[in-house]
Amino acid sequence: MKNVQIPYELFVALLQYHLAMEDDYAEDIRRGLEEKLDAMVRHELYAKYKTAPTEEEREQARWEYLDRRGVPESFRW
Fold first, then answer.
1. Is 42 exposed, middle or buried (0-12, 13-18, 19+ CB in 10 A)?
2. For the chain, how many structural domains are there in total?
3. Span 18-36, pLDDT tens digits
4. Cβ(7)–Cβ(25) below 8 Å
5. Would you say residue 2 lies in a domain?
6. For residue 15, is it within any domain?
7. If we measure between CA atoms, which residue out of 4, 37, 39, 11 comes closest to residue 25?
8. pTM above 0.85, yes or no
9. Is the residue at 1 inside a domain?
10. How would DSSP label each residue in 20-57?
11. Are 40 and 4 spatial neighbours (Cβ–Cβ below 8 Å)?
12. Range of the domain at 50
């Protein structure tokens, strides 16, 4: 099983939401978890780009990674 690290502020918001039953943190939690998920997906794409067995798979993963990062096509090699 893998471990996932989250920012301290997100951890506190999760505690407040679940243990103190404060619904004010729901939007912050949603946004923080979405950011973390995006970061994890970008990391997986980067790792796939670096370790893919064929040049075609590496190039496809590289383009998908750059798309997710928001790099314009004019800046790509």
1. middle
2. 1
3. 999 989 999 999 999 999 9
4. no
5. no
6. yes
7. 11
8. no
9. no
10. S--GGGHHHHHHHHHHHHHHHHHHHHHHHHHH-SSHHH
11. yes
12. 8-75
